[in-house]
Amino acid sequence: MTSIFSADWVLPVEGDPIEDGAVVVEGGRIAAVGPTEELGAGARFEGAAIVPGFVNAHSHLEYAVYAGFGDGLAFGPWLATHIERKARIGWEDFVAIARLGGAECLASGITTVADASYSGAAAPACAGLGLRAIVYLEVFGADPAAALEHVARLRDRIEPSLSERVRLGVSPHAPYSVSADVYRATYALGLPVVTHVSESDHELDYMLRGDGPIAGVTSVGHPRTTSVRHLAAEGLLGGNVIAAHCVKVDAEEIELLAAHGVAVAHCPRSNAMLGCGLAPLAELRSAGLRVGLGTDSPASTPSFDMFEEMRAAVYAARARAGRPEALSAAEALELATLGGARALGLDGEIGSLVPGKRADLAVVSLAGSPYLPWEDPAVAVVFGGSPERVQLSLVDGEARYEKGGFGWLEVRSAAASARNGLLGRPREAVRARVAQKT
Ligand SMILES: [Zn+2]
Question: Does position 432 have pLDDT exceeding 70, yes or no?
Answer without folding.
Answer: no
